[in-house]
Write a structure and sequence with these properties.
This protein has 19 helices and eight strands. With about 425 residues, the protein is an alpha/beta fold. The strands form two sheets. Strands 2-1-3-4 form a four-stranded parallel sheet, with helices on both faces. The structure holds Double cubane cluster.
């Protein structure tokens, strides 16, 4: 791939040597973690291809879109409404990163005790290895956790085009009003960037595309309720990760065609693991590409992951946007309503999330829940305590894990996971 895209990467200002090194690690990790799996659905071939071209063909597509006058907007959070972006003929791409890079340099800008997700985003910028970040015409930060809020103050000096969206922290009338103001302000900013006025038809179209994408990924999730599980948690996570990068219409078609295949597998009782394999629900911090470490540990320790209560998973994708409005104002209200339901741990109090985790554990017939927290992520690590209590009340076994992106201590993590799986068998 390198030779074909070298000029494109160079024009984006990437550090070619560092970027090659990253792609080598990514390729090797993918081979060892993904391609080594057994009994994968054939439809995963599409996602294997997307991953093999994640810095190649997809970036070329974005560059072609830009050449045709479309804008690219990058985001770090599921609160950035893709409906509005698509309504302005722009493309939204995820910028969260799931690997350590240029860490020494990162620690010149961020304290060591910052969560891996934030550090990684800085590492990809400072190391000049992320073509998504470099091709974005606008980068949207959001005032969610304290780490991100303060990090954007610094990021503003490293990128030319940072737009910061304020977000509520309380699910109150005032909180919703703030979200409303901010979504209208965002709509104005996107219109200004793209030169396109968002009208009813455009917004409806954006809503329809994103709803279809969510329906498809939700359909995939629902099929994982079967025993034996028709698809591995690793593969389902990959689909949830690619949700943030791929062309949304093509993504929807590809996920739906995998679902057709999985339905046949379920009819034939064909699974990725044998029937009665212990079933795990993961809940907590988002896992961005290529953060596959922990799911890999679980699925090579004798269990299968059947769901993710995560923003790269059901927290981010559930709930559709009502498309019955007939004016921009009504449709914007529907967009605001939909996003105001996202139960990120930055909200206080946040009882909906507790209820949703219990509901998912029951729906997906999980034998146990693993609460996955990134070290130094206060919102999710703090919330893990009440979540643990709520699950214990329902007699659902729980394991709390806090970790980072490093490959150190994998042995210890695996030992803890294996002991938990033994317990829930
Ligand atoms: S809506 S979860 S995508 S903010 S892991 S950076 S919380 S210290 S990512 Fe998130 Fe939006 Fe919420 Fe979802 Fe902070 Fe925690 Fe780091 Fe996190």
């Amino acid at each position: 791939m390198s030779e074909n895209y070298k000029n494109m990467w160079e024009s984006l200002g990437l550090d070619l040597a560092a970027h090659d090194a990253l792609l080598d690690i990514l390729g090797k990790g993918y081979q060892d973690i993904y391609l080594a799996q057994k009994n994968r659905p054939q439809g995963m071939g599409y996602f294997d291809f997307v991953m093999s071209e994640v810095h190649g063909l997809r970036i070329k597509e974005l560059m072609d879109e830009k050449a045709a006058g479309r804008k690219v907007i990058g985001s770090f959070c599921v609160f950035v409404p893709e409906e509005i972006v698509l309504a302005a003929d722009a493309t939204l791409v995820g910028l969260c990163s799931g690997a350590d890079f240029a860490m020494e340099e990162v620690e010149n800008y961020l304290p060591r005790n910052t969560c891996a997700l934030i550090k990684s985003a800085f590492g990809f910028k400072l190391g000049k290895v992320c073509p998504y970040l470099e091709s974005a015409d606008m980068i949207v930060g959001e005032n969610t956790c304290d780490g991100k809020k303060k990090a954007y103050e610094t990021l503003k000096n490293l990128v030319q085009n940072l737009y910061v969206m304020d977000l509520p922290q309380v699910k109150s009338t005032e909180g919703r009003s703030l979200l409303k103001v901010e979504y209208w302000r965002f709509k104005d900013a996107v219109e200004k960037l793209s030169g396109i006025k968002i009208d009813t038809q455009r917004l409806l179209k954006g809503i329809e595309i994103v709803n279809n994408k969510r329906k498809a990924i939700y359909r995939l999730s629902a099929l994982r309720k079967a025993d034996p599980a028709p698809v591995s948690g690793l593969d389902a996570l990959l689909a949830n990760q690619i949700f943030f990068y791929d062309n949304p219409v093509r993504f929807t078609e590809s996920v739906n065609s995998i679902c057709d295949e999985l339905e046949k597998r379920i009819q034939n009782r064909k699974g990725v693991f044998p029937e009665k394999t212990p079933r795990i629900l993961i809940s907590g911090c988002p896992m961005a590409v290529p953060n596959w470490k922990f799911p890999w540990i679980i699925e090579t320790s004798g269990a299968v992951i059947v769901g993710e209560e995560s923003c790269v998973g059901e927290r981010g994708t559930r709930n559709l946007t009502d498309s019955t409005g007939s004016t921009v104002e009504e449709l914007m209200e529907a967009v605001i309503d939909r996003y105001f339901k996202v139960d990120c741990a930055i909200f206080t109090p946040n009882p909906d999330r507790l209820g949703h985790i219990v509901e998912m554990a029951e729906d997906y017939k999980a034998d146990g829940v693993i609460l996955y927290g990134l070290q130094f992520c206060q919102p999710y690590l703090m919330e893990a305590m009440p979540v643990e209590k709520a699950l214990e009340k329902k007699n659902i076994p729980v394991l709390r894990i806090d970790t980072d992106y490093s490959m150190e201590y994998i042995g210890q993590l695996k030992t803890r996971v294996e002991a938990f799986i033994e317990l829930i068998k």
